Amino acid sequence: MKRLALLLPLLALAAVPARAEDPATNAETEDIYPPIVPVLAVGIFPPVQIGSEDASVLGVRLSLPYAKHAGVIGIDAGVVNDAGYLAGVQIGLVNLAEEFHGLQLGVFNRSDCVLGGAQIGLVNWTDHGVDGVQAGLFNMCADLRGIQIGLFNSASAFEGVQIGLINSSGGFEGLQLGGLNIETSANLVLPILNVSF
After folding, report:
1. Lowest mean pLDDT: which of 22-31, 33-42, 67-76, 123-132?
2. Whole-angstrom Cα distance, residue 175 to residue 162?
3. What is the 3-state secondary structure (H, E, C) of 136-187?
4. In whole angstroms, what is the distance from residue 102 CA to residue 99 CA?
5. Strand partners, 159
6. Strand partners, 67
7. CB 3.0 to 4.6 Å from 190: which of 5, 7, 167, 194, for a disulfide?
């Protein structure tokens, strides 16, 4: 009973916006400062979630099974996690973020841009740049500054290291270490080691 008494105020706090709405607020201000959901957000499926899709969560978000918010700063855990911006940790079967700083840990991790951090899972896919680490069975990104470790690694261009059974790059500065190393810009396929500086 004591735990319930402690939990109820936290849930009530999570449902209240962090700042009062100003009637004079214009659309431009709302775009710059989206609503904040403090402490805890729980989602079943949008719109059945605490906070609207254009709100950001500051604290912990539980996606049971799916939640979508403009941003999450903190811990994002559940089955399918979907955030426009993530600063923190996403843990789930499927993790989606337009851009993030931190860690994505799941079966399938997808991001438009990793601004600093790591994707660890079976499949890690980033449309643009990765500054950090991708570790999994299949790792794919456009531009990599860091390291890819997996069964299959692919980067359009990279500065760093690829370690895997098959490594593929359009061009790179660094090291490819694996069973088959492919550099498509030079029509080059090498076993074991490929170095370019």
Report:
1. 22-31
2. 6
3. EEEEEEEEEEEEEEEEEEEEEEEEEEEEEEEEEECCEEEEEEEEEEEEHHHC
4. 10
5. 145, 173
6. 81
7. 194
Distance CA 101, CA 114 (A): 6
Q: Which two tokens stand for residue 34?
A: 């989206």
* Dihedral Cα 182, 184, 187, 193, nearest 10 deg: -20
Q: Residue ranges of the domains in the chain?
A: 31-196
CA separation (Å) from 5 to 16, 50, 185? 18, 20, 63
Residues contacting 26, CB < 8 A, separation 6+? none
- Write down the pTM of the prediction: 0.79
CA distance 62 to 4: 18
DSSP code, position 54: T
Q: Name the token pair of 127.
A: 């449309």
